[in-house]
Amino acid sequence: MPSGWPHNHKDIAQRVFTEALREHLPTWLGGLPPIVGSLPADLPMVDTSDRHADRVFITSDGWILDLELESSDDGSLDRFLMYATRLWVQHHRPLRTLVLQLGPPVTRGDRVDGGALQFGLRREYVGARDARATGARLQAKRAARDPGWTGADVLDVGFWPHMAGWDVAVEHRVRQAAEMALALPAKWAAAALACVLGMAPAAVAVAVLESLKEVRGMRSVLDVLVEEAEAAEARGESRGEARGEARGQVEGRRLALVRVLRARFGEAADPIGTRIARMDDADQLDRGLELAATADSLEAFLRGWD
Fold it and tell me: Is residue 144 a contact partner of residue 153, using CB atoms and an 8 Å limit?
């Protein structure tokens, strides 16, 4: 994250960026089960440096998803293999490694064949996507009377500066994407802006923030986004939609928790379904999903959850 931001803004942007990936990445990429939880990304003793995995999630089938964002060609299979090995040692759960490469496609291996040691990953080259086509689609939506923005558009905006076909410097790409992020409805804008700035070079992100503040007279872009969302809620413009979305997210977590428990522990987990159906606390359900994916037994799950 940009080193020139106030510390609390770094935390806000990082949290919002991670939540956007969690909510929208399976739809944006395709071929992934829904993400239903998160795990700590710290992997002590992976190597002698202080590197750690970027983001570690749990998917609805009980697998771990190690998501790596790579802005350079340093996509070492050995490093990703070490992350996967440490995650296995910590959690003993099946694992997917997904690498989002921000640069253009290059020829490199995606598998390690070491006899008894086998490892593979999936690479997605954001740099192979068409920036002009994406920009045209986003501009058309912005101009439409009823644009129908979706969560996948959030990641399109966020990754837009890294797609192929731009003929301007990176700071202009980031500035254009940041302006597009601010054009989204309040419920998407903060997430899109956090994605744009979270993947930009530090100096560029700080310059873009300062430029937006100057042009728009903002004290802080992120603060203003939060204030706008709260004002819309107070006016009742989005209250029904926000409540409906929150209910839908809680219900999705309930269903995911029941599915993971049933997949791991069979019919013995069925009686817990009644308790889960009465829960409205998203944080408690998220904690249950993490435990359901990592607990050695149903009894261990219940002890940890209680």
Answer: no
